[in-house]
Amino acid sequence: MLDKLKNKQAKIGIIGLGYVGLPLAKAFVDNEFHVVGFDIDPDKPETLSRGQTYIKHIGDDTVQAMNASGRFSATTDFAGLADMDAIIICVPTPLKNGRDPDLGPVLATGKSIATHLQKGQLVVLESSTYPGTTDTELAQVLEASGLKTNEDYYLAYSPEREDPGNINFSTSSIPKIVGADTPQALELALALYHGVISELVPVSSSRAAEAAKLTENIFRSVNIAMVNELKVIFDKMDIDVWDVINAAKTKPFGFMPFYPGPGLGGHCIPIDPFYLTWKARQHGVETRFIELAGEINTHMPHYVVARMDEALQIQGKQGLSGARVLMLGMAYKKNIDDMRESPALVLTELIEEAGAACVYHDPYVDEIPMTREHAALAGRASVALSDDEIAKADCVVIVTDHDNVDYAQVGAKAALIVDTRNAMAGHDAACAVVKA
Q: N or C: which end of the chain has fewer CB within 10 A?
């Protein structure tokens, strides 16, 4: 196996062709490995085989180049796993309604692998999860094959660190943590990613690697919660939190800027911290700091809606009741089409619950996709950002600060702007701009 990996003769199977799996497949193909992508959604392999993309920051030309290399194919037939030398799992790890971890996708994938698992294969989990998932739950499912973990086959954990839309870092250039529970498994996992990823960071165990991934995202969640709380406090004092942060970040040491927003989005930061709180409870440990951060961040959409209602009342209207709201941005962050856990979905529901009509414009999200928690919003289409559309809105709320939105046009035509991202900084406005 080591020789195959070093000579790029190993066949790589990647399960899950979403925001993590597809860029990872590209990285392996670019480094002359043969890759087969597996997904339970038949639309994904069919789309890729036509040379088309379903992730906007990975263009059709990228998919076509992967196909033209002759080293990439995609399928829903998991029987092909038996022919792979290394199998990488890149499936979602969502939360259940009670904020408990949902390992259903990981364990279902493990069962599919177990059916076809061969001696000598390497299995690597990349999905974000709590410490102990790899060496307990996943290992137990895989051992239903009759093969012994790290004796007959090898198991490792290497957390994904994708940041969709980040122009400064790609899959290959982001340092990659790799953890396993035997020297042989770690050696194989490092050999798998060697050359594909620019820098590898080996750690002592799969649990250490799992904990590192959670720590990264808990760090961000807690600090975002802090500035979100400061936003609320400083607003009461008539202080602009953005002005404060911009001043504070000039300190060359001891401060790292984080920025407030309308709530947390993306697959990692709103979810990963609660994987650790659940696991900590099993050990009799409270995670008060993490849970408090979660409460603050979860409350942010409610705060934004309250500010909108207040601003409309100041203008002599009946608050949100009967108002028309134009929301700018539906994706969870700027310049991408990623809708996972987007706070815009919650905001839309809260705005309409308050009696307003809500439409949205997003140059990256033509139509709201089906989501588990916001199914009623699926199918709504983005409206054109015309002078008329802006003018007929009682309030324009900026939720995602995409670069290719004409904020000067918004400032010239809007009756009221509620800005959750400081997007109007540097732009004139003929109306009141309320930061929320």
A: N
Tokens (6 digits) for 17: 């062709």
Domain match, 285 and 412 both: yes
Each residue's pLDDT tens digit, 251-274: 999 999 999 999 999 888 999 999
Residues 188 and 297 in one domain: no
Range of the domain at 423: 241-435
Please give the backbone phi and psi of residue 126, each rounded to the nearest 5 degrees, phi first. Answer: -110, -15
| 329, 358 Cβ separation under 8 angstroms | no
Q: What is the pLDDT of residues 362-377, one digit of tens each?
A: 999 999 999 989 999 9
The burial class, CB within 10 Å (0-12 / 13-18 / 19+), for 410 is buried
* Calpha distance 46→280 (Å, rounded): 42
Query: How many whole angstroms separate alpha carbon 375 and alpha carbon 276?
Result: 28
Domain-located, residue 220: no
pTM for the whole thing?
A: 0.94
347 falls within a domain: yes
Q: Give the max Cα distance, the chain.
A: 74
Q: How many domains does the chain have?
A: 2
What is the Cα Rg of the chain in Å? 23
* Strand-pair partners of 156: 124, 180
Question: Catalytic residue numbers?
Answer: 268
